[in-house]
Specification:
CATH topology of the largest domain in chain B: MetI-like fold
InterPro entries (chain B): MetI-like
Distance between the termini of chain A: 35 Å
Number of strands of chain A: 0
CATH architecture of chain A: Orthogonal Bundle
Keywords (chain B): Cell membrane, Membrane, Transmembrane, Transmembrane helix, Transport
CATH class of the largest domain in chain B: Mainly Alpha
Distance between the termini of chain B: 44 Å
Organism (chain B): Roseobacter insulae
Oligomer: heterodimer
Largest interface: A-B, 98 and 96 residues
Largest sheet of chain A: none
Shape of chain A: globular
Order of helices and strands of chain A: HHHHHHHHHHH
Number of strands of chain B: 0
Helix content of chain B: over 70%
Membrane topology (chain B): Multi-pass membrane protein
Protein name (chain B): ABC transporter permease
Strand content of chain B: under 5%
Radius of gyration of chain B: 28 Å
Number of helices of chain A: 11
Chain lengths: 263, 328
Amino acid sequence: MTRGNRILLSCIYWAFVLYVFVPLMLMILMGFKDSKFIGFPIKSWTLDWYLGVFADAEVVSTLTYSIAIAVLSTLISVVVGTWIAVLLEGRRFLGRAAIFGLTILPALVPGIISAIAFRIYARLLGIEPGMGAIIWAHAVHNVPFVALVVMARLSTLPKSQIEAARDLGADPIIAFLRITFPYLIPAILGASIFCLLLSFDDFVRSFFLGGYEPTLPVLIFAKLRSGMSPEINAIATVALVLTAAIGIWAERFTRRTNKDTNS
Amino acid sequence: MSNDTTTRTKSAGVAPEKSDRTFWGWLSVWTPYTALMKLVTASPRRQFVILAAFPILWVLTQHLGPMLQMLRVSLTDAYPVAPGVEQHFTLDNYARFFGERIFWQPFFRTLIFAGTLTFCTLILTFPVAYFLARHVSRRNQLLMLLLLLIPFWVGEIVRTYAIMILLGNTGAVNLVLKWFGLIDRPIPFMYTSFSMGIGIVYLTALYMLLPLYSALEKLPKSYGEAAADLGAGAWTRFRRVTLPLTLEGISSGCTLVFLISTGFYATPVLLGGPSTTVFSETIAGFFHVAGDEWPTGAAFATIMFVTAMLLTGIFQKLMYALRKGDTK
């Protein structure tokens, strides 16, 4: 581990940080440009594009639509994912490996194929394209992430606690509600936030399963196809700030709860 | 945590004394509830069935169902079936794929593209992961990793748009090059395989970085030191110690990135041009033009899925063999 090596590696790391941050910074900056045309250099600045976003009824209704989809699909994913995790963790039975494989399948299917498969299946189930279809597709797609996170947490639950509860007369349901479930709450919250972000950011499933009302990424995509404008930068920045803020908060939250439970 | 739970455990399910009648105590003696519990817990077998029925039903109908239905539709000549029309079994949809160049060319382009980009991502993120895992103190590791995580919370479309602004003719890169007097007129980066590559690597880098980081982080530093004591140079240490012991991380990172990059739709549409059409655009074409050709689209999606699964499966087997061979 020579000194030169370390300096070179740290340069690579910071170059990577720049690669990851600079495009987003430029995009945020461009939203302040006082002109209809995207491009550098920026000669005069304005706040109008950002103020316009919140005055635009279409953007505001799209935002609430996206948030509603994210919340409802997350609720389904969390219930189903937790149930699957409780079944799979620490139990041996015939076909367990197959069920585990099927559980993570939606996470492995490449985006476009998953969207197409959901589109075809929605027709079979009789779900019309629109809010219900998007919620359903997001919910199914996010179940594997919940199941994996909850299984990881469940594997660290001391078995003795459940046994003690059972010895004291608790039936399986009360033991679950009073011992297992409280223990799982940090994992469930972490997984929920992950699902919310996945759903809010998802484009391909929302695009193929959506009706006439677009979700936020679909709206940005549609606007981009008809030309770039600082207006899009402002909308995209609102989405960015929202997701990044939730992400950072979740990161801090999970770290804090992990510290609490470890001590 | 422990304190809290033990106190809770003590009272769990115990028939309550009259003075502190808790909800749980009340529930455990409530007749309808006890009757239900008797029914549920009559035998371990019944208990298991009640627990397992819903998850099994869900994964079969919701996870496996869409894939099977896609396969079924791909083998028919009409879907959705119009009234009065009969549906027939056919392999024509698969035959179409091999018959026309505009179909199989994007397919192979996608595979080559995804493979190349996976390799580029690996080369790009390995030093970053290595630096984080080996040269940074434990405390800073998490902070510096979090710094990289933030942009990845942002969605696919927003990040694709950011790349469009970076690489456009009046974009930041061209502006900087002009400032330094390196070019007179802007370089047309956009709508080429270059812009598409930059965009896709930008979207997938984290899925490579995290598995690499966790593999490198588990590797004890003493291994490298031992090798150094035995006279191994830096390159030999890397090739004989670090690399073989991180193969597992490399293999799962590459698999993830490959699968994800074959599935992108919006990014190639926005960043690519007519000469870089990828297979996801071909597949999507069957679903949103007038006169939907769903069965053909389903067949093409099936071809893509099976190929991607086979390739990553073979890749993982190879990496596994390599790992076993090296540790012996």
